[in-house]
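The material for today's practical consists of a large collection of protein records. A record pairs a protein's sequence with a compact description of its fold. Instead of coordinates, the fold is spelled out as a row of discrete tokens. We will come back to this pairing of sequence and fold again and again. Here is such a record, shown just as it appears in the course material.
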Amino acid sequence: MTIFLSRHGRTEWSVQGRYAGVSDIPLDEVGRGQARLLADWARGAGLTGVVSSPLLRARDTAADAARAAELTLRTDPRLRELDFGDAEGLRRAEVDPEAMRRFQADPVADFLPGGEDPVDAAARVTGCLRELDPAGRILVVAHNTILRLALCGLLGIPLADYRRRLPLIEHGSVTELALGPAGPALRRFNSPIR
């Protein structure tokens, strides 16, 4: 199976540096352009399926790609972004400084107050990815943190290192992952669509 992981297009909160998590934020104009570029890529990618997070920003990005590939978009709640709890809607500087210090030191042992445990989030997203069509070429549109947790979970990278080893998934980029009997193989990471 080949999985193409893509982060949704840009939102206003992305520009402002706000934790969006489970907040349902729409794409901004740049994000809509990124969705169109992903759709252009999807048209010739030989996809057999498109699945996305149910959150608006991911769903709208994936819908363009599914139409371009002449496929039906499927959503799966396990692909939603990590819930950042008390930090939802805040900029980093607005989060309690001690909570932020602990989170930056170890985002798994000390996840943001009121937020979702990253271990649970990694389990839900990797479970979803492993259930996809084993013979397919699937585009998965989701979110920055949940995609990094999925990559760590599948590639054997310690979850506590997700922010250091995979600092950012770019909006509208494509990461290609092969899942087979020999284990996962990362073919490309954070490739821009032009």
Q: What stands out?
A: The mean pLDDT is 96. The chain is about 35% helix and 20% strand. The chain has one domain: 2-191. Residues 2-191 form a domain with the Rossmann fold fold (CATH 3.40.50.1240).
